[in-house]
Amino acid sequence: MFTSWKIYQLLFVRLIFILFVAGISIFLFQKELVFTAVFSLLIIFLLLVEIYFYIKNAFLLYDRTITSILQNDFTSDFSKHKSYQNYSNLFKLYETLKNKENEQVSKDIVYRSILNNIETGIIILQKEGNDWNIFLMNDYFSKHFDVPKVSKWKYLKNHLPSLCKIMEEQNFQEIKTSLEIRVNQQDTQTFVMQTSRSEIYNRDYFIVLLDSIQNVIEKKEKEAWINLMKVISHELLNSITPIRSLSQNLQDLVQQETISAEDLDDMKSSVATMLRRSDHLQQFVESYRKLAMLPSPKKEKIELSKWIENCFQIMAPIFKQEQIEVLNTIAFDRRLNIDPQQMEQVLINLLTNCIYTLKETLNKQIIISAEVKEKRTFIMITDTGKGIEKEIESKIFLPFFTTRKEGAGIGLTLSKSIVEAHGGYLAYRNDDEKTTFVICLVDN
Q1: What local confidence, expressed as pLDDT, does residue 345 receive?
Q2: Which residues contact 254 (CB under 8 A, 6 or more apart)?
Q3: In whole angstroms, what is the distance from residue 429 CA to residue 413 CA?
Q4: Within 10 Å of residue 28's Cβ, how many Cβ atoms?
Q5: What whole-number distance in Å separates Cα of residue 353 and Cα of residue 426?
Q6: Using only C-alpha atoms, what is the Rg of the chain?
Q7: Residue 232 and residue 400 in contact, taking contact as beta carbons nearer than 8 Å
Q8: Number of H helices and number of E strands within the chain?
Q9: 110 has a pLDDT exceeding 60
């Protein structure tokens, strides 16, 4: 029954009991029962001592719980103190904070695991007073730069002075730059450093990301080679597999003692098929050679309008046949330093792609526009076709990748290589189900 009572209720009962015993003691003294009265006084003393320790334990438990919360120490178990009904809400608060702390610790472990498995050097600094301390350093940073996981800025400066010097010179502000760092007593490597600064709950954090340009390039090259080999192997197998099968069939036929008219027809058909596949394979190799041996551009000054007009004249019969409306919205002229033949090929390739995408479209329209920004000329070719599907967006510039049965898959790749040889770039974007290819040329 008493376990459900509050502390003040239990304390009140104790005081009533002491007063009751005190009254009995006075009554016994009046009756001159001295020894019994003294015994009653002893009981009163013991009850006072018990009250003292009861109150002391109650306050100590309260202080322990509050201290644990303030110090984020959730190792204690207060479930055995359920008799203190006054503290039930305090114990609930403790358990709630304990669960949140465990959840936060779990998240921290997951986040640190993610950061430690990223192939990017990450270091987070936390400002304390006028100094910076190292809040986090991931495993890649520590291992790649051979730096122990120190906690003080001055120790990091001893290991990576060039890196720390840049941050100090910029006064720990947000920057994006490249720098050279000697790694493990080897040759210097170039890194891209990107920093950001954040203030969270009055705490100042400075985040530094370091990416090795060499690693990024090697990763991109590896991905490009893997994709290229997939396409090449697919194309080669498409030709070699039927040729081998037909060769095996021919071998079986010629080993016969007599060759019937039907067998002769099979032989003729097999040879014709092998010839077609060989021609396709030769065209494939020629296409690869064309990409690999792209000549350097022979630049000359040519008007933008003349370049566009020459391409339109070449493509005009196809536009008419396919009933495609071409709108030239370029309202200015500009002299470009380009190889006319190569850049005409680029524009023709892009217009050919537009024609293909417009085949199943009712509103067949191609729009040519241009603009000049910061000594760069941008030429945009937009069609009202169905756009590029998300699944193939990353593959459109891949050599020999094509969605057309009759296509060789080198048009966009070759165009991209030509524009890049001119010091520019070729890009695309999908806007409102419209595809726009952008040719960027640098004025020089």
Answers
A1: 84
A2: 267
A3: 16
A4: 18
A5: 14
A6: 42
A7: yes
A8: 11, 12
A9: yes
Cα gap 83→81, rounded to integer Å: 5
What are 184's two structure tokens?
């493990």
Asked if residue 182 lies in contact with residue 163, where contact means CB atoms within 8 angstroms, the answer is: no
Name residue 277's amino acid: R
Q: Are 135 and 206 in contact (CB under 8 A)?
A: no
> In sequence order, which residues have a C-beta less than 8 Å from that of residue 391 and are 6 or more positions away?
none
Tell me which residue has tokens 């030709």. 239
Mean pLDDT over residues 123-136, rounded?
Answer: 88
Q: What percent of the chain has pLDDT over 70?
A: 79
pLDDT (0 to 100) of residue 433: 67
Q: What is the average per-residue pLDDT within 130-159?
A: 86
Q: In whole angstroms, give the CA distance from residue 325 to residue 319.
A: 7
Do 64 and 90 contact (CB within 8 A), yes or no?
Answer: no
Cα dihedral sign for 82, 83, 85, 86?
negative
- Strand ranges of the sheet holding 188-200, from the earlier edge strand across to the other edge: 131-137, 121-128, 203-212, 188-200, 176-182
Tokens representing 237 are: 């197998």
Q: What are the start-end ranges of the H helices in 255-339?
A: 261-292, 304-322
Q: What is the DSSP letter of 245?
A: H
Secondary structure class of 426 (helix, strand, coil): strand
Q: Read off the pLDDT of each residue in 356-385 and give the average, rounded to a whole number.
A: 85
pLDDT at residue 341 is higher than 70:
yes
Structure-token pair, residue 426:
């070729």
